[in-house]
Write a structure and sequence with these properties.
globular, Alkaline Phosphatase, subunit A, 495 residues, nine-stranded mixed β-sheet, 27% helix, alpha/beta
Length: 495
């Protein structure tokens, strides 16, 4: 590889060397020279894939999903051009969802059930010791990026990685390009230079390969700039662009003009009442609009699959300088971390020219692992080795009224969070069971009649509880789910 064309400062070079991140040089090379394909002839049978993943965006944070303060015209229009899923699910926190999405395997099977930093050490003063969870996505796992790269795609991660340290960065998992991806789950700031320490602890955080910005530059906008550069430099090669935005995760920061606009819109009776968060969602929507317009201008619109989704439900806690909850997941209960619907149900919109009908809604339950098993076979990628935890969604994309041959969806969060104690859950049809590990308590809800999970039917439906609990036990055994264990230092608590 020729040397980079730009001159880097000594501290930056030393930091990159220490972190073992070769992507700096790959990014500089990408900027200087379009990626050349071994066979540069366009291949219309292999669509480009743009997967846009929001961070902590709740199900009802978009206009097309019922938001009452937020404005998302570009995503609303995208939903009118493709299929909007009403019952799409993720894991309840970020790292497990990202691992599951990229591998097609359940987070419990991967033994990655909490965000990376949280896997280091859990609370020591609670009734249970949290289950073991890997910090790094193992190199033995095969990602969607690796499958696509093997078939000739340019593969690029722009934004958040959060799947391990430098030895497990995107470049080691099939991505040709990594712009911004690190082990951290959030930036120090959404404003350039995006770096600093103190917000998330004493360590210094930064977002790599965004060094040459300027005061006032906003992270969501800059990541979009980089994503458009990837599209431009793909040349005639099909590309997989994984645009993993940090927005609207904390820190809750937005552009001043947008904040003032939404402050003027707040009125009594709204579920959403955070003007800064609303402004962050607007910037996210603007980003989607820019990507769509760029594809259209480049003549790529009709040969590009667009997927938009989120990694978990909305965060209902607070942030520094904020009052009240950051967002609301109404009509669903609770939020990020929880296995109630507010924590795991997410928006999912797919526009696939020639496959998806326009303006359709699909009510079949789906989960992020399904995307791997939908996209990989489309381009002739080799099937996954070992067990798979997702299914091909193309029958639903072609006919949103169809159903899948899948008995149940399972969830596993054997950790503590502000919204939950360690818990597993299963959804089978309209019925959903939650089992809490501290005391074995079960809750049962009918999501068709009670989507807000307000009426626990466990005492009335004992036979159904037994059947679902048996299924959940068997599933945990099958995937080798890691379980929490009693804390010997905590005694005398009532069960």
């Amino acid at each position: 590889m020729p040397p980079p064309t730009k001159q880097w400062s000594l501290p930056v070079l030393v930091l990159r060397a220490c972190l073992l991140v070769p992507a700096l040089f790959a990014a500089a090379e990408l900027a200087a020279n379009p990626v050349q394909s071994a066979n540069p002839a366009p291949d219309s049978t292999r669509p480009n894939i743009v997967l846009i993943l929001a961070d902590d965006l709740g199900w009802s944070d978009l206009g097309c999903y019922g938001a009452d303060l937020h404005e998302t015209p570009h995503l609303d229009r995208l939903s009118q051009q493709g299929v909007r899923f009403s019952d799409a699910y993720a894991m309840s926190v970020c790292t497990p969802s990202r691992a599951a999405l990229l591998t097609g395997k359940h987070a419990a099977r991967l033994h990655m059930t909490i965000w990376s930093e949280g896997s280091r050490k859990g609370p020591t003063n609670r009734k249970l010791i949290q289950a073991n969870s890997l910090h790094d996505l193992p190199q033995t796992e095969t990602t969607l990026a690796r499958r696509l790269r093997d078939t000739g795609y340019l593969t690029a991660l722009v934004g958040k990685w959060h799947l391990g340290n430098a030895e497990h960065y995107p470049e080691t998992h099939g991505f040709d390009v990594n712009i911004g991806g690190t082990q951290w789950g959030a930036p120090h700031s959404f404003f350039w230079p995006y770096s600093g320490s103190g917000r998330f602890g004493p360590e210094f955080r930064f977002v790599p390969h965004l060094e040459f910005g300027k005061a006032g530059e906003y992270l969501t906008d800059r990541l979009t700039d980089e994503a458009l550069r990837v599209i431009d430099h793909a040349g005639d090669k099909p590309f997989f662009l994984y645009l993993a935005h940090h927005a609207p995760h904390t820190p809750i920061e937005a552009k001043a003009d947008d904040i003032r606009y939404f402050e003027a819109k707040i009125r009594p009776g709204l579920h959403h009442r955070n003007a800064v968060y609303a402004a962050m969602v607007k910037s996210l929507d603007d980003s989607v609009g820019r990507v769509l317009e760029h594809l259209k201008r480049r003549g790529l619109e009709q040969n590009t699959v667009i997927i938009f989704t989120s990694d978990n439900g909305g965060f209902i806690g607070t942030d520094k300088g904020q009052t009240g909850p950051i967002t609301s997941n109404a009509p669903f209960r609770s939020g990020k971390g929880s296995l109630y619907e507010g924590g795991i149900r997410v928006p999912l919109i797919v526009r696939w020219p020639g496959v998806t009908p326009a303006g359709a809604e699909c009510r079949e339950p789906v989960v992020l692992m399904d995307l791997f098993h939908t996209l990989a076979p489309t381009v002739g990628a080799a099937p996954s080795a070992g067990p798979a935890d997702g299914v091909d969604l193309r029958p639903l994309l072609q006919n949103p009224a169809a159903t899948l041959n899948r008995e149940a969806l399972y969830f596993h969060y054997p950790h503590y969070y502000a919204t939950t104690t360690p818990v597993s859950a299963v959804r089978m049809g309209d019925w959903k069971l939650l089992e809490y590990f501290e005391n074995g308590r079960t809750e049962l809800f009918n999501l068709r009649t009670d989507p807000g999970e307000q009426t626990d039917l466990a005492a009335r439906e004992t036979a159904r509880v037994t059947a679902l609990r048996t299924k959940l036990d068997r599933w945990r055994d099958d995937v080798g789910a890691q379980l929490p264990r009693p804390n010997p230092n905590v005694t005398g608590q009532k069960k």
